[in-house]
Design a protein that fits this description.
Order of helices and strands: EHHEEHH
Family: Belongs to the phD/YefM antitoxin family.
Strand content: 15-25%
InterPro entries: Antitoxin_Phd/YefM (IPR006442), YefM-like_sf (IPR036165)
Number of domains: 2
Largest sheet: 3 strands, mixed
Protein name: Antitoxin
Function: Antitoxin component of a type II toxin-antitoxin (TA) system.
Amino acid sequence: MATTHPLRISSTVAARKGIGFITTQAQERPVTLTSHGKPVAVVMSAAERDEQRRLLREVELKVLSMAANLVADRSAMLTTDQAREKLFASD
């Protein structure tokens, strides 16, 4: 996981240092590759990526749960018999 500040490095310097340097650094912290001073890519460890995906999924599920609760609070609940009656009344 990221333990220090992200590393910013130009893509030219990164190419000169080699992929081994970038992957080694990425195990410790995200590496931001720049071109003309602007970020163009980020390299991070697989563990960091997995953790970010896990956290994102956790937040997605919380948002969906909150949305479902809002809909449930604003919706009229029907019994099974009422739902069946409405369904067959449409025919």
